[in-house]
Write the structure tokens for this entry.
Amino acid sequence: MYQVERAIFDLRRGLAVVIHDDREPSDAGVLVYPVESIADAELRETLELVGGAPALTVTRHRMEAMGFSTQAEAACLPLRRADGLRAEALYLAAVASDGIGARLFGDPRPAGTSERAALALMRRALLVPAAITAGIDASRRTALDSLVADGRILRVSARAAERCFESGTGMLRRVSEADIPLVESVRSRFILFREPDGLREHVAVAIGDAENWPDEVPVRLHSACLTGDLFGSLRCDCGEQLQNGVRTILKLGGGLLLYLAQEGRGIGLANKLRAYDLQDAGLDTVDADQVLGFGEDERRYRAAVDILAALSIKRVKLLTNNPNKIHALAEGGIEVSARGSVYGRVTRQNRCYLEAKARRSGHLLRDVLDEQ
């Protein structure tokens, strides 16, 4: 896990890493560079370093946005000519809504094990899931091994990288806590949990007196939304859902609100803002995420299960409009004995967003949409 965590931070810093398939002893590995961080000089140096043919590696969703067809979950697009190619053109090829840059590439091929692992690391690092990848030529292997031995570049196994989303399972750490009186609930206590890789911190907000909670503990899983929760963005209903969630839990006798670090349905704030820009160009919230290469919903709820277990909560009334949260808790061994809805207002600015969540993702919003 240690090497994977280092790889995530190196990628976020804009550094290349080597991923090798440890199930193949002869595999020299693939050099991986995050497409959103690379600069022209670094691109040239990287390609000279490994000697292999470079490619843009992207997800199936991004392939479709670029106008390619593939059955593979990820694919590599060979660069037609690497010399003179600018990093900005590769970035636009990975994020633009109109498939710009398709002319830069040859026929796609399915991504290999190391390349798929590279995209998993990108998503875990909250980067655009696209990378410049190049196989390490045999003639450069000794020189690259020397750089790895000197600590100038990190090598990580594909098998470990593929499991990067599972690395924190059961290892969430309770870090600190304090009483925080809220407008909606004066008796509230914040308990902070940190994931092992240090990237994400989640807060359990205990509302009311825990010793007086119902046996069926009211619980709300709220994904962090900086724009809505803090600034009152009209593009979503998150801020009002947060406030209404606290209010509802208190009315039910107290319980728990989990404030989960899952901005933008798990894609991170930077990518969420990119998706907003695409929505302004006419895409709905699901299509915008997929154009960037993400799935319909990148959230995982293992952290929520671990927090509930750490707080000895086994049976809940879940306040949610999202059936996926019910299934996730049930699969994690939490009994969801009842469900309640939590709505915000439907406005001119957020109606399309809410309609897309109901139509495309099965969120239980028809009552409030039809009413308002």
Remarks:
- Residues 2-162 form a domain with the DHBP synthase fold (CATH 3.90.870.10).
